[in-house]
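2024-03-11 09:14:02 DEBUG pipeline.ingest accepted 1 chain
2024-03-11 09:14:02 DEBUG pipeline.ingest length=301
2024-03-11 09:14:03 DEBUG pipeline.predict start
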Amino acid sequence: MSRTLLLVDGSALIHRAYHAMPTSMTNKSGQPTGAVYGFVKMLMRAVADIQPTHIVIALDRPEPTFRKGLYIGYQANRPPADDSLKTQYSLVRDLIQAMDIPLVDKAGYEADDVIGTIAHQVVQNSSDDQVLIITGDKDLMQLVNTQVNLVLPKKGMAEVKKVDTAGVQQKLHIRPDQVVDYKGLIGDSSDNYPGVHGIGPKTAAKLLAQFDSYPAIYQHLDDIDEKVRTKLINGQDGGDISYQLARIRTDLDVTFDWDHAKGIIRNPAKLAAVLSDYGFSSIVRQFDLEHATPDEQMSLF
């Protein structure tokens, strides 16, 4: 029987929740909780809509990643997170653990790399299992294949767009396995890496349609129009580093356990206590946790 794993880009969901909820929302002690509340509501909405059989949440860590070591300017244009958001990261982690959802992260890497690795493990080990990745990061389009699709949220989680191989082709005019090549050429302003100066999306897609990959383009410079060839030669340093930065790792030493990912809340009373402490009485009622005891179990699905 095939399984459907919901892989959640937790860091992206926290940021989306923070900007969707009022910053004035706090618990009894005055600590901001809007991002936490929005996170759990969006997560529950996604579970209800997607109806997976298993779930895992990946999070970023605070340490610098290997990409920063490759390129000092990586993500340098991003403003620091608001203090009111920073204080909620640990609350979200505590809530995920109380819900008994596997939380996976890896020092030196991003949530994207954790997601890429787990998705790769699923595909390598079974041709029947499916992976749905909730994220707002279109870089993850490179992971899409016949078993792996993206779920891109809109308006919180009220609307979502499912992206399969045809969706990537329609959006970028390239195959999913060409996304890294594409990013090497055009760069990424949100992550602040340069690409090849002067090469835009249309030219990149045209080059990849003709030569298939970033390395192959540079192996066939003599076959390329002089104006474009000059840009490729002058901008190769930016392209080469962007080509490295864009690739999501799929080989991390992380453990994925199907049994742990079944969505079984092993201690509903603990979850009720955490939610009550945060002031989320409506979610306690929604989970039907008012009379939960430590020795019972319940399904998240």
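2024-03-11 09:14:41 DEBUG pipeline.report The first helix runs from residue 10 to 20.
2024-03-11 09:14:41 DEBUG pipeline.predict end
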